[in-house]
Amino acid sequence: MSTGRGFAVWLTGLPACGKSSITRELAARLGELRVPVVVLESDRLRKILTPDATYSPEERDRFYRTLAMLGELITQNGVNVIFDATANRLAYRAYARTLIPRFVETYVRCPLEVCVKRDPKGIYERARSGAAGTVPGVQSAYEPPRVPEITLDCEERVETSAGVIVEKLRRLSYI
Question: Would the pLDDT of 2 be above 50?
């Protein structure tokens, strides 16, 4: 079913919970189904939008508002978006939901201990050593979604998690 508007899937969770891996698999699955999708990955966009990132609350507010508005512009033009972004505050994701009517918040639930063990980018190590001072789940709060459309377990296979999202998109008649 097409309304002329795209949908958005926002994958949220602690850093290193598996958002990026699930995003890559989801984008590939949607590509196989010929569903056009743009991935808005916070790490890549932060290099452009906030190249000297401080991760202050004010900077995060601006960054996530801008990210949500980019998603709105893209979905208004009939292209679908996957947000691969921690967005540690409920308000960031709620704002995106107000802009994008076809919005699927997807929480990748993962215990902090598991994220710390994974830590592919060294975020938690930098937090432990004092080189990073605002890591969500450590020095900054991470506010999990209250009622996400989808909750995934970080221990599930990436293929399984992507399949759950695709099935939800089908049930919503977004694909």
Answer: no
